[in-house]
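Transposase
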Amino acid sequence: MLFASRILNGVTKGLNNKIKVIKRVAYGYRNFYHFHSRIYIIQVLLFHNNKKGLIRIFYPYQT
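Structure:
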């Protein structure tokens, strides 16, 4: 299937992994709002400060 469609889900898996890490760290947060805010902050730092696109975030050595 990979060779027929040439679509990979690595970006999605990477983002899900980052959310799971935040979830483990956020175990002691008082409410869901703090958890949601942390995910939003990480998303802004990763995606909006990147000029070359999503691939650059998860594969930093690719030119």
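The chain has one domain: 19-63.
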